[in-house]
Specification:
CATH superfamily of the largest domain: Medium-chain alcohol dehydrogenases, catalytic domain
Distance between the termini: 20 Å
Helix content: 25-40%
Strand content: 25-35%
CATH topology of the largest domain: Quinone Oxidoreductase, Chain A, domain 1
Number of strands: 18
Oligomer: single chain
Radius of gyration: 20 Å
Shape: globular
CATH architecture of the largest domain: Alpha-Beta Complex
CATH class of the largest domain: Alpha Beta
Order of helices and strands: EEEHEEEHEEEEHHEHEHEHEHEHEHEHE
Amino acid sequence: MHKSKAVIARNRGERVEEVEILVPEPGPNEALIKIKACGVCHTDLHYREGAINNEFPFLLGHEAAGYVEEIGEGVTNVTVGDFVIIAWRSPCGRCRSCLKGKPWYCFDSRNAVQNMSLEDGSTLSPALGIGAFSELTLVDAGQAIKVDAAVNSNTASLLGCGVMAGLGAAINTGSIGMGDSVAVFGCGGVGNAAIVGSKLAGAQKIIAVDIDDQKLEWAMEFGATHTVNSRSTDPVDFIRSVTDGNGTNVTIEAVGNPKTYEQAFYARDHAGVLVLVGVPDPTMRIELPLIEVFGRGGSLKSSWYGDCLPSRDFPKFIDLHLDGRINLDKFVTETISMSEVETAFEKMEAGKVLRSVVVFE
């Protein structure tokens, strides 16, 4: 049994705490990971607020990279000392989706079997089956994806969730092609990653939509060709004005809000694709005229984790970054210690950062 300093959410809505936890030795098909960096994602705040479920206390953190410290029996995909990004999807290989050749939709994704706990024995619920605001964490070995160790660990960590979600929404789900036009609604970490992915895929026009001028400035740095502040300008009208009155081939909604979803729906060209990658509140509802859904054609898609296959996509995008074809370093706004997670939540809600990253020695 290992002791590890970690950040937990003990009760709904309470400030997070820095505590010491107990992490088991890895059992069969498990891996113990020494965390080097972990991004502060909005999903962690959702856990703290009880918006995911009520299985407190939570061990927060899931956008992480580090080194394999120990492996359990039967582990063959990684060895001790490998640099890895932790994925929150580890396809089982046996469910109906995996057997159909679509493991990115796995219905039985694997996590560590053993539980991490507080020193009093209370079982911790690790965020997205990871729990990486911790010096050490225990995961299913399939969640540990080996990548080139030359990458900065702070940058690599973000590919574990938000950056991958955005890249995948554009490339995997949206299937953006050379010369396409794209509109991205919401230019935080996920939305700007969708802009990077759109540019990489060969999009000719990339229109960024947000209510924050700072985020729109970031969007231009990531590759947007046009921006529109939807507080002051109708985004659908603007998008049509710069696409010959047609709308875009693909719209990506990275907010998770009924209003922006509706805007993205109407901003598409005839038979265009709408990709929802923003995570909505469970209480939210949308209402669209069914004749418009029928008459406009195209498709309305949801992008889960960027429809990624981590074992395929993580190494690919890290290599593209190291080759200089995309720049993922710009997603790291600041590096912080575990004691600053609560402040990072506040900055995130205020739109002051793309990502704060907790770094470990």
